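Q: Hi! First time doing this. I have a protein sequence and I read that you can turn it into a structure. Is that right? Here it is:
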Amino acid sequence: MNAGQPAGDGRRVESVRVWDPLVRVFHWSLVAAFAGAYALGDDGGAVHQALGYTVLGLIAFRLVWGLVGSRHARFADFVPSPRRLLAYLKDVMARREARHLGHNPAGAAMILMLLLTLTGTGITGWLQTTDAYWGSEAMEDVHEALANITLMLIGLHVAGVVFSSLRHRENLARAMFTGRKRPS
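A: Yes, that's right. Below is the predicted 3D structure, encoded as structure tokens:
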């Protein structure tokens, strides 16, 4: 179903639903949980741990929703092959990349990398609560490195959102709140 949005000059621009409410709630909840856990750091104690478990729970939900969710939520809809990703990146460099209604191949690859590093961060955090890794400096170092890599990927993700928003003249951050984008 299409719905009109103000275009800024008084006319209405049609939009279509792309991201369902569960994807959007997942996204912003993940942002909040990771940001809170990262900000608290090692001194966050039980709250840091609870936020870490929240991240893992959200990822578990997203993995299931990536298999059974709405069209643009499904991994089958947006996860690119390496060849498709490379072709898209070449098109970006040549300034001729196609606009995608859902995630573009670079955004999809970023999602996968973020899910992997967030999962690794959460698992290594949990492992530090077990008898086998309690007090393990090596596990703490891996946990911290994964959290910092995740933070770096988040910066690249935000830069990619800004880049794509400017290149295709659409506000992708707003679309992640509303779930809607222009159809073409």
